[in-house]
Specification:
Distance between the termini: 54 Å
Order of helices and strands: HEHEHEHEHEEEEEEEEEH
Helix content: 25-40%
Structural class: alpha/beta
Strand order of the largest sheet: 2-1-3-4-13-12-9-6-7
């Protein structure tokens, strides 16, 4: 009798805890190419955000979670430094239906180095990775502060990271840019065989968002170096993207 009572109490407490959370997100870190050493620090950073902002996060590297039954429990899915081909055809179809149902996606850094041959995904990301120079310090400039998480982000800030140059033309033409990179403040030139980077010209976007296929998509190119996941400015920026992707709220 006592065991049954304790089990019932645990069920009630678990249900109450789940109800108290704002929303639930899936954190996905599978790689099929370069594996960022900062992934574990990124997981810790997102878990810190979950504890601070009262939401639930499930961390997975197994792509089998991408099915209609399991995905329906999540308000947003986060691709944290994923690389290469991480979902099979069936899993891709389930994820497309998930976004079409009005849910959200958050991409961090190498999420733009993922699934190049899946056109639906590349349009959701908006811009895909081309090349990057050596890690350097550069200036970031906020170009649109009307987005959650940018309230305390300086208009101009010195930052060290791995600066992605993205492919042209863009995969989507409705991207709303949030943060740009000042190419005059660092050297963008690099060459990997026939792949040559010279910078992106007049404007180099590094974070953006858009509504996509019934859902929401947010991407930030920051997040290569592990210690950024303990930086409050970055955590504010990242949570803003998670919050908007999961709820659709926060834009005036």
């Amino acid at each position: 009798m006592l065991k049954k009572s304790l089990a019932l109490l645990l069920v009630i407490l678990s249900a109450a805890y789940a109800h108290a959370q704002q929303f639930k997100v899936l954190l996905f870190t599978k790689t099929d190419g370069f594996h960022h050493q900062s992934i574990h620090e990124g997981v810790d950073g997102v878990r810190h955000l979950a504890a601070r902002h009262n939401f639930t996060v499930d961390w997975q590297e197994n792509a089998s979670v991408f099915n209609e039954k399991q995905l329906k429990d999540y308000a947003a899915v986060i691709f944290l430094n994923t690389t290469g081909n991480v979902l099979n055809d069936e899993q891709q179809a389930a994820f497309e239906k998930y976004i079409q149902s009005g849910k959200g996606w958050v991409g961090i850094h190498a999420a733009a180095d993922t699934e190049y041959e899946w056109p639906w995904y590349t349009k959701m990301v908006g811009m895909m990775f081309k090349i990057h120079p050596a890690q350097q310090t550069a200036y970031l400039d906020v170009v649109d502060s009307n987005f959650p998480g940018l309230e305390r982000f300086p208009k101009r800030m010195l930052w060290t990271d791995e600066w992605y140059e993205y492919q042209k033309p863009y995969k989507s033409n409705d991207l709303k840019f949030l943060i740009g990179l000042d190419e005059k403040s660092y050297d963008p030139k690099t060459k990997w065989g026939d792949n040559e980077g010279k910078g992106m010209g007049d404007f180099h976007p590094i974070a953006w968002y858009h509504k996509y296929d019934g859902g929401r998509a947010f991407y930030t190119g920051l997040g290569h170096i592990g210690l950024v996941y303990a930086d409050q400015s970055f955590l504010d920026h990242l949570y803003g993207g998670i919050y908007w992707a999961a709820t659709g709220k926060g834009i005036k």
